[in-house]
Structure formats: C-alpha cells, structure tokens
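User: quick one, fold this
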Amino acid sequence: MATITGHSELDSSPSGDNAGANSGPGRFGDRLFSGLASGSGAIVVALIAAVAVFLVVQAVPALADNHANFFTDRVWDLSGTQIKFGIPDLLWVTVISSIIAMALAVPVAIGVALYLTMYAPKRLAQPFSYLVDLLAAVPSIVYGLWGARLLLGYYQPIQDWIAAHLGWFPLLNGNTAASTGSILLASIVLAVMILPIITAISREVFQQTPATHKEGALALGATKWEMIRTAVLPFGRPGVISAAMLGLGRALGETIAIALILSSSNGDFSFSILNGGETFASRIANNAAEFDTAKKAGAYISAGLVLFILTFVVNAIARVVIERRKAFSE
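Assistant:
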C-alpha cells in the first residue's frame, strides 16, 4: 500500500507542476494578447461609429434646411440663402462607373489568378505576382494623370466611333459625348486600380483548393480546364465574390483619380456613359473651397454620408460572403 501511495504521489506531482505552469507567464501572455486584440477591434468599431455620428450630426441641419428633395431632385445650388441639393446625378455616376469597372476588372483578375496558380511555371509565377501586386502601390493621383494625359488620347477616337455607331442606345448616346474625360474612361482607370486587389485575393483562394479535389477530377479523366471548372472555380467562388465586393468598395470611394479624369457635366442630365459627371467623392473634392459656411459644408457632408452608407453596405456584404466561405471550407 505504501508503494502504491508513493506511486500516486509521484504521479500527482507532475500534474501539479503543469497546473502551475499553465497559470504562469504563458497563460498571462495569452490573456494579454487576447485583451489587446479585443481592444484593437473595439477601437476600430468605435472609430467607425464616431465617423458615422459625426456625419449624421453635421448633415442633419443642412438636410433640414434643404429646399429640394435630397433623393430625387437633380439640383445642386448652394449660392443663395435657400440651399437646394440632391444626389441622383452623383449616385448614378458613382454606381455606374463602379459597375463598369467591375465588369472590366473581374474577368481579367480571375484569368490572371488562374494563370498564376494553374498554368505559369513557378519561376515565372512569383515575380509576375509581385508585379501585379505593385499596381496597388501606385498612388491614385498617378492613375488620374495617366488617364487624363495619356490614355485619353488613345481612348477619344474609340469613344467617337462608339458615339457615331451606337448612339441609338441610351447608355451610349452620341449627342452627349464628352470632349474630355467621360464616365467610361473613368471606369477603365478604376478597373486598372482595383485589378490587383481582386487578383491577389483570387490567387490566394485558388491556391487553397484541396489537392484531393484536383487530383480526383484528373483521375476521373478530366482535362486541366475541366478540372479547373469543376474543382477550382467552385471552391474559389465565394472568395472571388468577396474579392470583387472589396474591389467594388475601393471603386466607390475613389476620389483623386476620378476628379482628374471626369469632366463636369454641363446641361441636362443624361444616362450616357460617354458623358461627363461627378461622383460623390469627386464632387466633395472639387468643391472643397465652398466649405465656408455650416450649411454648405453640411450639404457636402450629406453626400459623404450617403457614400459612407453605400460603402459600408458593400463591405458588410463582403464580410458575410467571407463567413460563408469559411463555413464552406470547414
């Protein structure tokens, strides 16, 4: 019995030491890191909430004094004692330019991501990936200057041809073709700007495709493209969608490049993408000098509030898609 008791004491002593170790610096470090991570997340949420509160507080007085319908009237006149401003034109240009940019960028981004992950040799894929990622490091003002000074010269003859031959279509109405930057040109530049974001995320998603899925498709006699179509693309679809939504959020909020490219639309409103116009962000940037009174500043802050809500909704949808992809992967 004494021997058994001795063994029991020997067996119990290591567990006591481990318990002491678990309650020592390692456990404290875990709690510290968890607290810092939670605090960082709380700070981000608090900042977003503070921005939202600021926009609402500053926008409400101007909206209350607005003598036009904010959502339906196509007027922006802050010069008199009675301010009048509405956002339909700004909303249209912001949304349509972003949608066109997505339509141009997403297929190219998916193609580049598939080439880098499935076709390119490793010695070429890595440096080429770096080059694509470097596009994200180019400042917005550089893209704007490139579009306004260089790309416009090559683009203008194409726009003139489109206006002459396809002007019967309302979106390509030739009667409103802009002699300078148009919505279509701005969309092309936006597409180049969001291309590295969508490509990088899509590439990472495609690389995470389980090898068993790909090998199983090939073992059943599928060609390489059939393997990609049946195994890689279905697995990466949620990630590609979330990447596209993040790119859309980037396009919606672009300011400097759009301000440099888009010419102000003079005259009656037109749905034509060959016409000029302003987005929410470019209108605020182009008219910053008018922030001389609280009412005028409030009008532009109201436009900023709509852009904030629009971008927030897009990113929230992207977050939901990412969570669905996580559940799918598990």
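User: anything notable?
Assistant: Residues 4 and 10 are 10 Å apart (CA to CA).
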